[in-house]
Design a protein that fits this description.
- The protein contains 7 helices and no strands.
- With 166 residues, it is mainly alpha-helical.
Length: 166
């Protein structure tokens, strides 16, 4: 059963700009990117009752799949598939997966408390030691370790809720 038109319009208003930026990083043209965004919104309109993860996660995974499907469809055309095309597809899939992971992690980190987020960023993104992070965050090293433990536990729960594999 499709969603109400007003709900779909709201989803489009809330998510289309960020989804379009994501797709522009992997699409071959702005027109293709807009087509992917439109197809993604159409699918959420048609399949809303089956969505079990967050809307944004579903949108990004759906857009990724559409881009890959479009690439595969182009490769099935009568022209002869060459090794370069297959290598390009592998690079495209890897690039798309990397972008999707980045978007999902940004969203998941945004759901953590500020204290947990700061510790995760310091330890895992900036590669600081617990002592260095303690100095920068102005908290004891033991607190950094404790927050890191609970932050990663919370991050796993958020990613699980979003339908992503932690």
């Amino acid at each position: 059963m499709p969603l109400d038109d007003e709900i779909v319009a709201e989803i489009y208003r809330d998510h289309a700009p960020v989804l379009r930026r994501f797709v522009m990083g992997i699409a071959s043209s702005p027109d293709q990117a807009e087509d992917v965004v439109q197809e993604t919104i159409l699918r959420i309109w048609q399949q809303a009752p089956r969505i079990t993860t967050s809307t944004r996660s579903y949108l990004f995974r759906t857009a990724r799949n559409i881009v890959i499907d479009n690439f595969r469809r182009q490769q099935r055309r009568p022209q002869q598939t060459q090794t370069e095309d297959l290598e390009q597809m592998a690079v495209t899939v890897e690039h798309v997966d990397g972008l999707l992971t980045k978007v999902l992690m940004e969203e998941a980190l945004g759901r953590l408390s500020a204290e947990h987020r700061d510790v995760v960023i310091a330890l895992h993104y900036r590669r600081l030691t617990a002592v260095q992070a303690a100095g920068e965050l102005n908290i004891p090293a033991g607190t950094v370790k404790s927050r890191a433990f609970y932050a990663l536990k919370a991050l796993r729960a958020v990613l699980d809720e979003m339908g992503a594999k932690p």
